[in-house]
């Protein structure tokens, strides 16, 4: 069988371009013993992938050159061995960026799609949702009634985190990169206030948004961007506040190091705690998370914010660039069929 | 009775100078009901006092102008009411910067000087020692065998923290501001390695010091300075490392904001936790601390590093300036008698 896949041709400098990659048609081998052949139906494009395109040491290995890139995908089993999942099952795995994937049996995860869109396992029911859940519940220990500020709040993780916090009786303020995204946060997702971080200094806009939300300080900052917004958040943290570092979009494309907050002395004066985490360390929370998230989805307490891209595998690279440039809202999912 | 005291005359800009203060002779009033008259025998000069001379909002109030400054002192009771401590008792209180102090009874703390120099209650047996103890034990949760890096290690808190960690079987690396101080750390206090932060880029010197200590990464950074050394420490933290923010000497005299670490992305990749604290929130640890520290002092596991200044109250301001400029080692204590 033949299938197409995206290869990394060279490491991007700054913003990636079309000449950094190539869409290649390959002959997919028969699955060997213990392997599973999957027809991918959807894949996600995510900010962390930009990091893996660089050689910089990161928590994940750099993508090799002239080989297919990887990432989360869902699909249906086309062929499988005697111990593998039945043909026709829905599975989630990490060999995205391709139409057909031959995956080791241990690396596929059969999912229960009863009542949910299978692509939800790329987003709210996948690592995206688990990331928001772990960040709020375990790292920040968010309590009802507290004030949460979340940056990149119209992104996949941010939009989920904000909605989970609202469901727990918190005041939620978010930032996003366009007036349209800001409107989605307050009008569709129930945020108490939101601001466009491109419209002026984060420091002033954050202060005004907190005021609109009827609060004067932040108990928990869920940071997806770093840079200027992190400094602005430190400035408005309440005593005993927690800063959960989840991502740093502001630094991913940067060719110069992005300065850290100049006001870290406030970390001492206000007894603040700042902690980075990677969701992979917290798999033990997955059963609780899946139970809670399925309930929140049924009750429409959490409504997935997604950008669905059609056009098949060819559309995946442009969708990645668009997501990176801030053109998408929520989880960017590419339908491959 | 007449006594002399140091008044703040104006708020220093950058490094304080002699014209910012005045030594004033005053008539000390009779102690009123519930008050205690104390002849101070020793006072400490400390970096945080620089912060209180500025108007900048801090965790502690700014010193008022044209009034005596405050700070830790020990002394003996000269006069006291029926419910107060007996005449002749040794007490610790916060009305330093003066020869005679009239202190509310509730604000004096009778100390047991059996077997110890009363001035120890300004240092290793006082808030200095408690700060090191709380920072390592509660904030960092330092474990035996881990590697500790402590900056301003020839300072009062840093020298105590390093010695406590050595007593727990840790590898300890410190930084200080002169070759003489560096020598004290490795030759007198048992540090595994130390470096002079003024001799070159912190990043390179820290790497070399870790190598000399036979280790390649840091589990706990006890930060007393901020700035460049904080960035260098973040770079060498091990997975799951903790950064305890205790002070930020690098920023106290700065007239421009000091940039934060440019490598906070490592906080995520390596799951680091950074936490600021103020010792006043952790008074509950004081009984454990006093028991442990008296034992460590008896066993010479902790040896107080002090700069003793004689010359009475007149010597207090020059001693403060010298401490701030890095001319002292360990706790700076001014003998007032």
From TrEMBL, chains A, B:
Keywords: Oxidoreductase. The keyword Nucleus does not apply. It comes from the Bacteria. It comes from Pseudonocardia alni (Amycolata alni). The keyword Transmembrane helix does not apply. GO terms for molecular function: oxidoreductase activity, acting on the CH-CH group of donors, NAD or NADP as acceptor. It holds the Pfam family ADH_N_2. This is Enoyl reductase (ER) domain-containing protein.
